[in-house]
Design brief:
10 copies of one chain form a homodecamer. Chain A contains 6 helices and 2 strands. By secondary structure, chain A is an alpha+beta fold. Chain A has 2 domains: 63 residues, lambda repressor-like DNA-binding domains (434 Repressor (Amino-terminal Domain), Orthogonal Bundle); 60 residues, Cyanate lyase, C-terminal domain (Cyanate Lyase, Chain: A, domain 2, 2-Layer Sandwich). In chain A, strands 1-2 form a two-stranded antiparallel ribbon. In chain A, helix 2 packs across helix 3. At the A-B interface, helix 3, helix 6, strand 1 and strand 2 of A face helix 3, helix 6, strand 1 and strand 2 of B. Strand 2 of chain E pairs antiparallel with strand 2 of chain F, so a sheet runs across the interface. Chains A, B, C, D, E, F, G, H, I, J: It is an enzyme of class 4 (lyase). Chains A, B, C, D, E, F, G, H, I, J: One of its GO terms (molecular function) is DNA binding. Chains A, B, C, D, E, F, G, H, I, J: Belongs to the cyanase family. Chains A, B, C, D, E, F, G, H, I, J: It catalyses: cyanate + hydrogencarbonate + 3 H(+) = NH4(+) + 2 CO2.
């Protein structure tokens, strides 16, 4: 998981400005996860969005070009070693087939889109230890017969 | 992703009885995803839970032993080829690092547990096409310093 | 690429009946590729479609269950060794990035769906040697911003 | 999928000139996909073609040498992580064997050439959402017996 | 490299009859390598060829079906462990790029076909130790520009 | 397949001098494939051979050291993506076991050496399309019993 | 296992100062293993801890930023080649399943946390050869049912 | 991680007898982990030990042969998917290099033996949640110079 | 490392007869390692040798066919998990390049044959612990220039 | 197998001085293989040994630090492509299990240490072609029971 140089610069600028992704959410009017994805060049901004971000971070406009491009996605490696990210791999390994069965029982043959898709994270306060709540919402795409 | 024989038998019995995982949810008093995970031997039932399930499916009690065991988890392969399951792998590839940053900004250094963890699926009706909503909730585990 | 036993039985019955996939196209009113995908358990038939197919092949109705199920898709291995199939892997290796650029230039950030998708094969007669024409048509899915 | 430096320079020049691959199609008299493949050093231009391209992009002639060379092809990695490119890998995984059967039924034992081969992309306008049409045409090569 | 059961039966029958592949060359009027490839289901016989072979081996006609089919080719594994076969992998590792350069210098951009292709083995007697001569002949396929 | 910098310099010098590998064959008195292997640091020259080559290419003597060294051989990757080189991998996949059987039938238990080995390429003119002829000759090495 | 540059600088400073990890244990009031993990950017320090470390090593404060960040964890490769580290991989290969059975027999269905986790190394003097004692202590996390 | 049939039989017999590994510890006078390793054919018993175990489990003496043999060790797969076992893989990924540095600082150049090695598991009661304590003790082996 | 059934039968017969490989060395007049290799179908016996072995083991002559065949060699997997065998993989990882340099310094460009090759194991008694002595002797094969 | 820069510098100095590893053997009083391993940072020298080597090679003392460190061992890749080194991988593939059986028959359950280990190479003159003799001697380590 080699992090692109642009990402490193954006993260450093964000740190210097003392901004959280949640702060940027208000400025860009997009979810903090989508903005984090933009930082990692996994999403693409419009010209205006890129300008807003660059201004907020106090960077010059030379960053706009990369933020509005369509880069090759996927941050590798094949099996993630970072424990936080690995847990999502593990969830897919352990609950992938059960999930498939339940989704198909509810919707028929098809998939949850990872493109027409949103992803949110919330903090659930809990006396026994706070919980991370991850909400995915993807359009159901039924297999076309032809 | 070779499906265990027990799983195949349980799924066949469920089909014959005309039961959905949602129906079993009411009988077992557990979420349908957890029950599907039990079908795939990725979760472990108590004696009573196993009995309830076996009765509901019209199977003899010989299945109880496998349903109450602690089997080796993880359904492979390394990169899933099934399109529905692959999309969750893709989400981890594309949004893994952004997710990590947002979670750590909210919670500090640590991970979302995949053990003290629940997983739900809901159908969101939408005129532009129904959506699959997947909700994960895992306890935040901060890294211990020692 | 281990071929499921059902597939082998279906292919043997088809051979015995002297039917081509093109013949089945007329009976099932679906494209021959989709029907071949059904043979390999990579597509799912309705009850009526399954009955029609089973009758056409002179098989008993016990096959209907597998033809109407939602099996785990993907026929492996990671890199295909069969020369005919490998060429499609090679096309993805050599023309994948150029294709990405041209599609994104025409459509913006997004993908061609492999679910809302059709695939056809035609024979182009050519004095210098007949040509295989493969036509893919997938709905363009733009990345959602949220 | 590390993109060669020449490619990056060519793409930057193209962007600055405000040219699309479709525009270059008219100048070079070759398909936009072939031109995109040339950008990624997956195809080889003649001296004249390379000159035409270099002029159109406002670059000096030093680029001609790389555009007319025969570089090592294949842009890796083994399984693509970019969602747009992955879908073509998925199509090969899911429809590879069905495709093989239909092609061999129509043509006999052999393959579709990926060398004597053309690849086109078209935009199909559709009220339910535009579609990406990908047309491959490869010479059928029958296996030689000796 | 798991050897198909048909192959094992054909090899056993050949051994029992005391026939070499060179003997079969005279009966089938095809090269011994092509016949060995047929034994391993890597080539496809016509009805007549299959009958000739089956008779020569003293087997019943039930084998004809597999010998005339178009099976999935490639005998794996990814990197061969058998020392004789590995040497061909090593030749590709060590001499692959030099070979590419020399072929392209002689022929231009393109490949040697592995389909319109023949392969022969000869024994070169040599006082310092006999030599294995392997002769490959494949049609040169120039890359099409479109 | 990352090409060593020395190789790139040698190839550039060769191009500037307008020399083919066939031209170098006359100067060095070695086969063009062996010379190409030397360019890629897969073979080792004597001092005199290295000097001859360096002079022919108009390079200074600093290259002699690398040309006379014994570098780590093998140009990777595990499965080649370049179509020309892949075909040799495919030949090993498809014809590896048949080849093994024919060689062992002719020679007994052992291998074809890839060390006491020569490799030649010839152009076979053919009205239906020129052919690439690749001739390998390796000493047969019988397995020693001890 | 490419070692980050910061790590190399920290290790060099520690060597120059003649400090052992055991010495740093007293300064930082954390276990030497945790401190070594911090050196390798596998743990995260607080501002004060980072300052203490930087002072002890005689480095300027520019290192504090990296020591307090949350980097991507996991030092690769998939199977370690270093003999000392490989032995821990081997222990997991050989004793992984037995360990699983014993832990589950003692605790029920769940895992030992690698996050709420400590790791210590002690030297056990022994006349037959000193022994390395590695003590892991992780919170038991029972699988949640939902 | 395919579990040998003998293992499955031994585990079933143990379950039927209602014996824990801790119970067997008293009978065999060996640690429960070593006994579990014996169940998985990762350790080798003497004749007497095998007899004791077989008697305790109420099995016939035919199992003695496998329990006293030296089988191929290592239970695969390359990266474990079972969450409990994966955590040990993760510990090696995250703490492998720090561990190496601390061990070498204490002992010099060498390794902890995984052969002259013991492994224990204890339950640490803790009001905040019980802890799994894993204690490894391996002889330090210094690298020999010769 | 799945062990062939023939091997298992041969090993069982050897055990029943109470014969060591050293005993068989005297009967077959070949080294014990070569005989063990024959047991694992990694070497090929003559008719007489096979008869001698089969008699010594008290088996019927039906085993002669497999012992005199030329099977596919290599017992996998890619990286061995068995600790005894892994150490040889480790030696190749750690000492492979140093060995290459010393061999080439002594012999020039070439390899040690693994075909014209013998392998012996001896027990070196040593008060500090007996030692395993492994002696390999392979013909040096110089690279041919052509 | 990327060779460390220090190694390259040491090898270059050795070449300039016209020293063989055998020459260094006399100076350092260690085996030439161990010295070659030191060159590749796979072994660790004492301060005095490092000084002796550095003097002999005419290098300044700045190299002493790396020669006395404990670097991460293992020179990769997973399967070596260099023919000389591959042969040792092949020996492990072909003779690994036979070797295991013979060693265990002689010594019981355990392994040959690769740490308390020496490795020598000798040239055996032979009229039929000189032979490479490789002698490994490793302490036998019996599996501890606990």
């Amino acid at each position: 998981m080699s992090i692109p140089q642009v990402t490193q610069k954006l993260l450093a600028a964000k740190k210097e400005k003392g901004l959280s992704f949640a702060d940027l959410e208000k400025i860009l009017n997009h979810d903090e996860i989508w903005i984090a994805a933009l930082f990692y060049l996994q999403a693409t901004a419009s010209e205006e969005e890129a300008k807003l971000l660059v201004e907020a971070l106090g960077l010059d406009t030379s960053y706009i070009q990369e933020l509005t491009a369509y880069p090759v996605k996927g941050l590798g490696p094949v099996v993630p070693t970072d424990p936080l990210i690995y847990r999502f791999y593990e969830i897919m390994q352990v609950y992938g087939l059960p999930l498939k069965d339940v989704i198909q029982e509810k919707f028929g043959d098809g998939i949850m889109s990872a493109i027409d898709f949103t992803l949110d994270v919330e903090k659930e306060e809990d006396p026994k230890g706070d919980r991370v709540k991850v909400i995915m919402s993807g359009k159901f795409l039924p297999y076309k017969k032809w």
